[in-house]
Amino acid sequence: MTARANPFFGREPRPHLEGDFAREELALAHRNSALPLEALAYDVTPLGLHYTLSHFDLPRLDAAGFRLAVGGRVARTLSLTLDEIRRLPARTLRVTLECAGNGRGLMSPRYPSMPWLHEGVGTAEWTGTPLRHALEQAGVAADASEIAFLGADRGFDRGVEHDYGRSLKLADASSDDVLLAYAMNGAPLAPQHGSPLRLLVPGWYGMASVKWLTRIEALDRPFDGFQQVVGYRYRKFAGDPGVPITFAKPKSLMAPPGIPDWFTRRRLVEQGEVTLAGRAWSGAGIAIVRVDVGVDGAWREAALEPQRDRFAWQGWRFEWRAIPGEHELAVRATDATGATQPLEPEWNTNGMGNNAVQRVQVTVR
Amino acid sequence: MTARANPFFGREPRPHLEGDFAREELALAHRNSALPLEALAYDVTPLGLHYTLSHFDLPRLDAAGFRLAVGGRVARTLSLTLDEIRRLPARTLRVTLECAGNGRGLMSPRYPSMPWLHEGVGTAEWTGTPLRHALEQAGVAADASEIAFLGADRGFDRGVEHDYGRSLKLADASSDDVLLAYAMNGAPLAPQHGSPLRLLVPGWYGMASVKWLTRIEALDRPFDGFQQVVGYRYRKFAGDPGVPITFAKPKSLMAPPGIPDWFTRRRLVEQGEVTLAGRAWSGAGIAIVRVDVGVDGAWREAALEPQRDRFAWQGWRFEWRAIPGEHELAVRATDATGATQPLEPEWNTNGMGNNAVQRVQVTVR
Known about the structure:
2 copies of one chain form a homodimer.
Chain A: E1 4-5, H1 23-31, E2 68-72, E3 78-80, H2 82-86, E4 91-98, E5 121-130, H3 131-138, E6 146-157, E7 160-169, H4 170-173, E8 179-184, E9 187-188, E10 198-200, E11 213-219, H5 226-231, E12 233-234, E13 243-244, E14 251-254, E15 259-260, E16 267-269, E17 272-281, E18 288-295, E19 298-301, E20 303-304, E21 314-322, E22 325-335, E23 358-364
Parallel strand pairs in A: 2-11, 16-23
Antiparallel strand pairs in A: 1-7, 2-3, 4-5, 5-8, 6-7, 6-11, 8-9, 8-10, 12-13, 14-17, 15-16, 17-21, 18-19, 18-22, 20-21, 22-23
């Protein structure tokens, strides 16, 4: 890990925030893209509507001159071109990715970071080669326990300068589902999705899927990169060493019905039969088995599509007889293990993994 | 104009705001996409990095069943399929589009709306047919003075329910540069850019380029649509009838140098020779003839690319000898008419057309 402390940048961004949003939070919301919730209607999210979360500036890498370095505890260090990676056996997986910080802006007090409300999610068809092919080519040493992944994006966080990097245990990294991905929805990766090459780790929150992937290192010890050790952990209090963030939790979202008001996004719905619809996913590859829709606090089961792709969201629908007046709609998913969404956010210091139910206020006329 | 007042929605979104940003503003920043400023490096903005501003939900229109209705003061009403429009003579134009509200979030007090900082801009290659071909086919009546354009996106603004709509004077609408555009960067329009058909009005702020265009009406009187009469006007005080917003003003932006801090986006730059670069545009089709870069308040002229496409931005570069310490960088464009960017925002009630110079704080080590 290359980490140089720098006196120009503080150790914590600023104290926790409540109420209105700081300009820094707004600037992050501008930089990163969110899924407009009506785009839940698409099985596969069109490019430009899938969420993005990039810690630092988007690197501009030249695909022609690109090399992926594979080193560390390996028999042979590699320097793979994109063509060499494309010639390895290819897989295409439909995967729902969600930002670990999705829902942070709904926690209070909230950690000063990207203030997602509900929209840090999307589903794409990712094409690449299982990472294990590259690892086999390099010959991972018997004493290697983790594989670290480093991106070309560099910056500071809490005073620590670093390239964005994450690691996986060797067993996790060897899954046939973990891809070196070079295409999204059938096209070469866009700059904001990691062009020309990224890691894709289905089932995990998005932070594991390192973009602009340029270096892979086999390690005989735990990776000590900032984003592994400090960045992505569930912490209950300041100073809590916390628990690493891994799999995504079960969650569901609704495309708000009716038409919006421009500024408040308050919804106006015509009375009568209204089809409510959205998506539910566990992320972790566990099927969602039940979705309930709440209307003014009364919950009823929605119609749910079966799981077709292990790592992709499932559609749900619910016929609602809308009666004039003010209503609160909500949606809640339960997975095959019985895990369900909490009714209120489960607070943690960094605002991670908030899978509390979404609530939508509507006016029926 | 279909406009029904609705008692559930107030006439003004809320009072002007100062300081931190309201949750409604944040939600708009999530819904709409911004250009990360490092993407100024691209001559043509990649899909997903070009700005978007959509007032209401993104409609999902079926290209196969799509019809463009042309009516009002015409000899023959038309109902054009997408194929019929594609068979008309095609043009491709490279155009820089900027949101009229870009920079609103930098005004104080600010109007409660999309709180753009600098990023509501992008450049694309738009392909379509000049609108005049469709108008000629319909036969615009001698008494027609304006052409109105209605989108499929519907919602409320300040209590008024309407489809998004704008108009142009017949003479403006008849320019060979005004396109019925069906492709962007060589691909069919993405949902968020108006799929399958939009208007493209080069030189004007983005509000004129109506997305999800489904109806065109020739009128013998001024169009009274909300977005024409109320929405997009420069107003100096509440109640001021104001002036319609038309052409984009001269502007320039810099890709901030160095590497960022995650939360503050403060920049760290290594001392020595640093190339500063960015783009400048008048939008209105008037060439930018000079760009100046300010370093700690001292202005010097940058190297500027000539105007190659009448409606597209021009690149500029500036070699800066960076000395350790804190610095403020700024950039200022001047067009062929002598119009230049103000040093401070020129306030108006709705936060429109802010082309004040961008300032970038950097730390050099």
